[in-house]
Write a structure and sequence with these properties.
The protein is mainly β. It has helices at 27-33, 91-97, 124-127, and strands at 13-14, 17-18, 36-42, 48-54, 58-63, 68-73, 89-90, 101-104, 107-110, 116-119, 139-140, 142-145. β1 and β2 form a beta hairpin.
Length: 152
């Protein structure tokens, strides 16, 4: 069952929705219990993708065949990563609770875990090169789970 309090599992799941499963496994539950906003979009190479925004809290991204490749959540999501990192936390708290923080593509990768990214808010997603460039009181309100290992 989809649960906005479930633990965020790096590279695997948010809200008990699992990467590499098909959206068809969740579609009845999604449409019977939540508000859903579906968007289709195309990558520069012409490949079609879809996103399902559930109760304005959880985003499920799929390929054209419905295979889930990415999951996102915002500050409305109440589950955490390893029970210590939660959406809505300030950068200073993320720094205190993790060993390393590296910036890639407008995101913070913590502890060299490329299965989860903490999304920086504008303008820091564009201008920050290191964690020291981000004010400590800035809140991190979005996380994404996927395979970000190609960023290494």
């Amino acid at each position: 069952m989809i649960d906005f309090n479930a633990e965020i599992v790096s590279g695997i799941s948010i809200g008990n929705v699992v990467i590499n499963e098909n959206i068809s496994s969740y579609i009845n539950e999604i449409y019977s219990g939540f508000s859903v906003e579906v968007k289709s979009y195309f990558l520069p190479d012409g490949e079609e993708k879809k996103s399902y925004k559930i109760d304005n809290t959880l985003t499920i991204a799929t390929d054209k065949d419905g295979v889930i490749f990415s999951l996102g959540c915002n500050e409305r999501y109440k589950g955490g990563y390893k029970g210590i990192i939660f959406t809505g936390m300030k950068v200073m708290d993320v720094i205190k609770l993790t060993k390393t923080q590296k910036l890639y593509n407008g995101s913070i990768i913590i502890n060299d875990d490329f299965g989860i990214s903490l999304i920086l808010p504008p303008p820091y997603d564009e201008i920050a090169d290191t964690i020291k460039h981000i004010p400590e009181d800035i809140e991190i309100n979005e996380f994404f789970v996927s395979d970000f290992s190609f960023w290494r």
